[in-house]
């Protein structure tokens, strides 16, 4: 037995490792005596040097290319990269390609260096006999507990390709939903920022010029004009206090949000009450809850474990606490749809569909249908918000800019009564 293990370890050690290439910048002189330069990909500095010598290049300078801040940002591993990677693994496993060979191919061909290095490390761990789920757990930033637990269930059931397919679908749906939410929040933020910037420019640079003209009139100005001029004086005098206080307020809030659970919970409750945006976030939380629970249940994870994963995936403290409460009630023997009704958080339609799923034994299918319904509703709501926000931007900017312009031109309109 020991001899067999030694042979297996030796065979594993002799397997080719995934290649990780780097970009090297070089300068030199060619066979004609001309100065040349360029870039070359290679695994090591000595390999690139040997390749250049074979080409007849007299090397004057050869160094590994350093990544700029922009390159580091663009090369960083993003959640969508993990979703695409999972889909690629699914495709190759379904085609009958072994997992180790799949990772080797992906590690050697991926365009992002951090991804190549991570895949090479994971592949080496698996070749050394470590289960894939444990190898993935070494990178919790990219493969969370839910991802690794699902892979572990696939290892136990022997259906790793099916599990990776479910994970890929889950990741793709999650990233699509996240993209829609960002799109929904981007437009209101744009309206607020543009409005503040335009108003600040007018108050700091335009209104003071009109104020100089009005002072030469030597007459009492309309109340609306005086109000705008006084506001301009305040902004000019205390602008550093205003912007400094705003920056400090944002910094304190972000710090408190990261450290205090009460602040996070309060923020989550508040945003759910916002008009339009709150409704979108509610539907998104329900979609994530149903999609996560459907994926875990279909992959063979216990319902109790699936509820823990779904509570974190909901993305909101209100629903996280409600799901954890449902989990406690289910552990005590209560049916899930009954436990969900007691929280008074979930819509009746969701509760009824889960009740049907529990009674018919097709809970994962019903949860997937619930997720699909709410994902579609989020998509429709974001499209509606996008079409609504464009005229809203014009209205807000029109009120702000138009109001300031009217305040400045009002004395000119009443020039006869203003000038003695």
Give a structural overview.
There is one protein chain. With 420 residues, the protein is mainly alpha-helical. Among the domains are: 22-66, Ubiquitin-like (UB roll) (Roll), CATH 3.10.20; 75-174, Receptor-associated Protein (Up-down Bundle). It is 77% helix and 5% strand. The protein contains 18 helices and three strands. The protein has helices at residues 2-14, 45-54, 69-75, 79-94, 99-109, 113-127, 132-137, 145-157, 160-217, 223-259, 261-272, 277-298, 303-313, 317-331, 336-343, 348-360, 363-413, 415-418; strands spanning 22-29, 35-42, 58-64. Strands 2-1-3 form a three-stranded antiparallel β-sheet, with helices on one face. Helix 10 (223-259) crosses helix 11. The chain is flat. Mean pLDDT is 82; it is low at 1-18.
Name the features.
single chain, about 425 residues, mainly alpha, Receptor-associated Protein
Q: Enumerate the spans where pLDDT stays under 50 for 5 or more consecutive residues.
A: 1-18
Mean pLDDT: 82
Approximately how much beta-strand content do the residues carry? 5-15%
Number of strands: 3
Estimated helix fraction: over 70%
CATH top level of the domain at 75-174 is: Mainly Alpha
Indicate the structural class.
Answer: mainly alpha
Largest sheet: 3 strands, antiparallel
CATH architecture of the domain at 75-174: Up-down Bundle
CATH T-level topology of the domain at 75-174 = Receptor-associated Protein
The strand line-up of the biggest sheet is 2-1-3
């Amino acid at each position: 037995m020991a001899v067999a293990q030694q042979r297996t370890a030796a065979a594993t050690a002799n397997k080719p490792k995934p290649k990780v290439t780097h970009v090297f910048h070089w300068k030199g002189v060619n066979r004609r005596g001309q100065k040349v330069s360029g870039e070359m990909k290679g695994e090591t500095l000595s390999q690139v040097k040997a390749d250049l010598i074979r080409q007849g290049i007299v090397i004057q300078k050869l160094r590994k290319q350093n990544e700029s801040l922009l390159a580091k940002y663009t090369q960083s591993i993003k959640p969508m990269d993990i979703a695409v990677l999972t889909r690629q693994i699914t495709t190759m496993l379904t085609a009958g390609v072994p997992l180790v060979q799949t990772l080797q191919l992906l590690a050697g061909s991926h365009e992002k260096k951090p991804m190549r290095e991570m895949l090479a490390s994971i592949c080496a761990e698996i070749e050394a006999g470590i289960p894939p789920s444990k190898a993935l757990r070494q990178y919790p930033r990219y493969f969370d507990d839910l991802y690794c637990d699902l892979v572990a269930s696939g290892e136990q059931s022997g259906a790793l390709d099916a599990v990776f397919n479910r994970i890929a679908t889950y990741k793709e749906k999650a990233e699509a939903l996240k993209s829609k939410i960002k799109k929904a929040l981007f437009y209101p933020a744009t309206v607020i920022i543009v409005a503040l910037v335009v108003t600040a420019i007018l108050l700091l640079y335009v209104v003071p010029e009109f104020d100089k003209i009005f002072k030469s009139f030597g007459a009492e100005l309309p109340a609306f004009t005086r109000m705008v001029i006084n506001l301009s004086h305040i902004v000019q005098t205390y602008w550093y206090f205003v912007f400094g206080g705003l920056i400090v307020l944002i910094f304190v809030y972000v710090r408190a949000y990261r450290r205090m659970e009460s602040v996070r919970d309060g923020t989550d409750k508040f945003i759910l009450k916002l008009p339009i945006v709150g409704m979108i976030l509610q539907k998104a939380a329900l979609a994530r809850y149903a999609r996560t629970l459907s994926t875990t249940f279909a992959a063979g994870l216990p319902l109790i474990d699936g509820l823990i994963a779904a509570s974190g995936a909901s993305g909101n403290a209100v629903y996280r606490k409600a799901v954890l409460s449902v989990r406690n009630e289910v552990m005590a023997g209560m049916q899930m749809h009954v436990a969900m009704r007691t929280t008074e958080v979930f819509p009746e339609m969701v509760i009824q569909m889960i009740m049907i799923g529990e009674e018919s034994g097709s809970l994962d299918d019903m949860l997937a249908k619930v997720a699909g319904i709410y994902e579609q509703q989020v998509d429709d709501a974001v499209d509606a918000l996008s079409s609504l926000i464009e005229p809203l931007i014009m209205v807000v900017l029109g009120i702000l800019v138009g109001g300031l312009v009217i305040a400045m031109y009002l004395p000119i309109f009443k020039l006869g009564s203003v000038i003695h």
